[in-house]
Design brief:
Layout (H helix, E strand, L loop, with lengths): L28 E7 L2 H13 L4 E4 L1 H6 L8 E6 L3 H10 L11
Antiparallel strand pairs: 1-3, 2-3
């Protein structure tokens, strides 16, 4: 293929030959608790982070969209491999959470 001026068009690299897309770090997560308390979520980040447990907060944007009237609680999720340690930390800190959905 040539441009109008007669020069050859640059070659486009094959997208399959590029860098591989990394596998997501967390393929399976479990809900630790649901809350509308931003202070509790911040405290949980610090508590679990000190023990090497990363958490992800789901539904935070939905909570803002609905006007922060506490209709949609935020879900605090941790990797399946860390859920037992995270629950033990919550128990040790005497944080109340829903234990009915424990797996």
């Amino acid at each position: 293929m040539h441009f109008f001026d007669g020069n050859p068009a640059p070659k486009v690299p094959d997208p399959r030959s590029g860098p591989k897309v990394p596998t997501p770090r967390y393929q399976s997560m479990t809900e630790l608790l649901r809350t509308n308390d931003p202070v509790l979520i911040s405290w949980l980040r610090a508590l679990l982070g000190d023990d090497g447990i990363e958490l992800i907060v789901l539904d935070s944007h939905m909570s803002v969209m609905e006007g922060s009237i506490s209709a949609i609680p935020r879900r605090v999720m941790v990797h399946d491999d860390h859920i037992i340690r995270a629950r033990r930390l919550l128990d040790a800190a005497e944080i109340d959470y829903d234990r009915t959905n424990l797996t």
